[in-house]
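A reminder before we start the practical. When you read a complex entry, don't treat the lines as separate problems. The point of joint prediction is that each chain is placed relative to the others, so the output describes one connected object in space. Small molecules and nucleic acid strands, if listed, are placed in the same frame. In the example below there are two entries. Take a minute to note the order of the lines before looking further.
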Amino acid sequence: MSESTEKKMVRLRSSDGEVFEVEESVAKVAKTLQDMLEEDCADAVIPITCVRAPILTKVIDYCKDQVMISSSSSTTNNPNERTEQERKAWGQKFMEGVDSSTLCELLVASNFLNIEGLLNLGVDKMVSMIQGKYPQEIRDMFNVVNDFTPEEEEEIRNQNAWAFERDPYYKKRSSSK
Amino acid sequence: MFSSGETSVTANNLPDDCLLIVFRKLESCSDRDAFGLTCRRWLHIQNSARYSLQLGCLYRPNITQEYVRYLPRLLMRFQQLRSISLAGCTELPDSALTWLQLSGSELQSLSLDCCFGLTDHGLTLVSSGCLALVSISLYRCNITDAGLAVLSKSCLGLEYVNLSYCAFVSDHGVRALSMGCRKLHVLIISYCKSIEGTGLRGCSRTLTYLEADSCLLTREGLLAAVSGGGLEYLNVSSLRCWSGGDGLDGIGSGLASRLRFLNLRLCRFVGDESVEAIAKGCPLLEEWNLAVCHEVRIRGWQAIGSNCKNLQMLHVNRCRNLCDAGLQALQIGCQKLMVLYLHGCRQSVGPQRVTLATATIMDPNSRRDSSVERTQLLMQPVRVQIVLFGDSVCSCIGERGGESERGVMLFDNLTYKSRSRNAAINVRVTQGLGNNRRLSPNEPRDAHSSLLQRDSRPWEPPTQAPLTVSLHFGAEKFRFVAGFRRHRHF
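Here is the predicted structure of the whole assembly.
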């Protein structure tokens, strides 16, 4: 963890007991932590009860990056500033190699900590994993147990064949591929 | 808490909020269905995120039993529906709508087009259950005034009502509707042969859109239709002839001063007097269809030229009495005119008279044919004449430039020179869209190239339909329609 004598530091404890020390500005990327810090609990160690250390590491990496972008974005000719395209590429790289269970943990963490950008990255990743898959493939991927009886499943399939929906957002299907 | 080491987190730990965001981002129906089939919890998320339902029984009468069986199940499953379309359930019985009494309170839009099996009783069920209804479409339904009256008493928020081809609806029903639903915004009564229009007397000012194509409106009925004072769109094409004067001058009497679109197509009896009154009384007109209005003569055209300063589109197809002087009056007066539908105007528009630009369009078949045939085609070019008003296009400089090698390019990218600008203009040719349609912004921009791509058969110049020619100057776009016959010069 980065040490700095000038900047105010915040300590976070993961669910498995590891303590992380980060700059306050980094912690404040998470809206949940920002709210807590504004109520002034600077000295205490903040327990992040539903996030394990490896996941919290990744979350902190994300927050640090956000701070780096925003802190330098006010200056002109900022080398860290990103175009829309670069941001997309960065997001993809950040989520690269994340498996489905890590993804779920990241989603839970970003939801709990209220980090919108990270949540969106996770959601987009999950969407891309689901697209074009059969139900059984989705179950296998995300460890979901099929709790339908075969009859129920059959009935839902039959109903789906009758129920058309306007394509949401009127987008063409091919555009998502 | 989770133990260290191997994780035990699965999608089951994801909160509903997360799953819902994921679900909403799935774009294709098959992905959404696969999501719902994963497990009960995910199905629940799919069901609760579903706002619209269209029953997939499109106009297949032999499957009545099936959809009557599935409809209640689907409605039970999707509890949040805002929009339901049962269009094409031709034999749907009234009883199938019973559920609406219990669970239709959120419903805003309902389409019952071509539900021939429904009666007033069905409409009563809708009325008692769907108090939040904003839009209802009853195209070709066998409902009567009584059903419409019940609907008008309970669904007070209705803004859009389509009654076209409802043969049993008369002015009584229309009166009930126009008195009850004071937010009515769009009313479509085309081909309702029992409606004379008097039921619209005193209609709400919110009524801005009235479509009454091929109705048997009377003179009083037409006055009643504009009595609300809010109309911006009025379609009374194919109006039946009245005896003693055309009576359409009522449109120009002041009550329709907000009118922006007026369709009088096939009102053959419309005379100069009415055209003059309308031109003066409706200064905001942007599009006016006078196709096949044979009685409009020079006085009418001059009145349009001197009064309709906002006119952008004018349909004068097959007007027998459009003369060059009339065209000139339009040209001088209507400075905003961008599109003129001239198809089938016999005595007008000699190229040497009012034409400001002439385009020669080659048959694109030349791309496919042998060189001999191509030469032949080039000798018999299909000529399209473009009359431009209010802007600066003048001569065609690339009429045959690069003709032999370029093949279809000749057709697609003729180069013109504009009078005021030196920019080259691309010309695209699209097949006609029919005389009676208003061009919508959704019309494909480059219908021509899609025409060629979609259809691999040799392109035939349309013999009846008008040809649309679009000129692009950078971002600006103008579209023109001219009638033409194959191998025949104007």
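Discuss with your neighbour: Residues 1-7, 347-490 of chain B have pLDDT under 50 and may be disordered. What might explain this?
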